[in-house]
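Anyone opening a protein record will find just a pair of labelled lines. A complete record is shown below as an example.
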Amino acid sequence: MLLIGLTGSIATGKSTVSALLSQPPYSLPIIDADVLARQAVEPGTRAYTQIVAHFAATTADLLLPADNNDTPATPPDAQSRNGSSPAPRSRSRPLNRPALGRRVFGRTPSRQRDRAVLNGIVHPAVRRAMALAVLRAYLAGHWAVVLDIPLLFESGLDVFCGVVVVVGVREPRIQMQRLRARDPHLSEKEAGERVHSQGHVEGKVGRARERGAGWGEVVWNDGGKGELAESVATVMRGLERGSPRWWAWVLLGAPWLAVGVGAWCVVKGWWARRRWERREREGEKDGEGGKPKL
């Protein structure tokens, strides 16, 4: 089974490509990291309790207002880091995601530390759920599955993917316009911080190209939906030639072969990652920052 890692920066059109791949003629199962992340922090989960414990004392609006029928309940370890102030009482009150976003998005050292804490809580839970979803897709005999992960490279999960597809735009102005049209409550500064938090698309394009043709693909989304759909179709035709549907059934019938193929993909992805990191370090020494030409 082919693992397709789908990524991009915010407002480049990754979700649109994901929707296209979930529909005919592709009808691929989509494992959406954002959906899994939301499920991982629902009230009552371990991640929810940890987030409330760490952020509630210093984020007054961390939880959404309780409904009248909610029964207050204090998470068992929901206290501030110094242990003196209890967190807001109600396991049933969902997280206020915009408020949490304002707390962790930004370039200051404190925001970066808070974002690292949040990622350290959410990412392990998401990875466990993702591994189970991949296993279910393999057992169902799917020829490919899409891992929709905004921070695919940053999380290191790219090495597990047989192919990485980056959705990008060549004009940063277009990206900012789309983001602010989608989320009108964001100021220009907040929108810029969101873009920065997911990494600039140039680096992701460079990482995909470093993997080589058939292993790393780029879908440009500077035009309309029709152009995007055609670009996706071109990429998918190439992927089906390299990993035909019958190959998925062979791997399903020979698990030992599937493990071997998976190990080879990991080695190849790890080596491509090393090459990119070395190239980036050399670019920084030359004063170019390792940015690819778009």
About this structure: DSSP finds eleven helices and five strands in the chain. Confidence is low (pLDDT under 50) at residues 68-90. The longest helix spans residues 109-139. The radius of gyration is 21 Å.
